[in-house]
Write a structure and sequence with these properties.
- Helices cover 17% and strands 29% of the residues.
- It is an alpha+beta fold and 90 residues long.
- The relative contact order is 0.21.
Length: 90
């Protein structure tokens, strides 16, 4: 496990969002991004047409890690956070 470094990967850090993908989902869709807040790793779970499907994916992703450091965020096509889930919080 690498220590948390908030810089983008291109600058030697852990954060992929901004370098490898953005918060913005394609038009009319919702993007789920998971973040391990302990080590700073982040990844895109996918883009979804329906917000309910995105929320369910975020909840499942957060529950899969089974620790309190995991958070999954749902973003709209403008990059706004519209929902989030973490272990113990749907």
């Amino acid at each position: 496990m690498t220590p948390y470094d908030p810089r983008p990967v291109s600058e030697g850090g852990n954060r992929k969002m901004g370098d490898m993908f953005s918060r913005c989902a394609p038009a009319g869709k919702f993007r789920v991004v998971s973040v391990d807040t302990f080590d700073g790793d982040d990844w895109m779970e996918g883009d979804f047409a329906m917000i309910d499907e995105a929320r369910a994916t975020a909840a499942a992703a957060a529950a899969a890690k089974r620790h309190s450091f995991m958070v999954a965020y749902v973003y709209d096509s403008e990059g706004r956070n519209v929902s989030e889930a973490s272990e113990g919080k749907g």
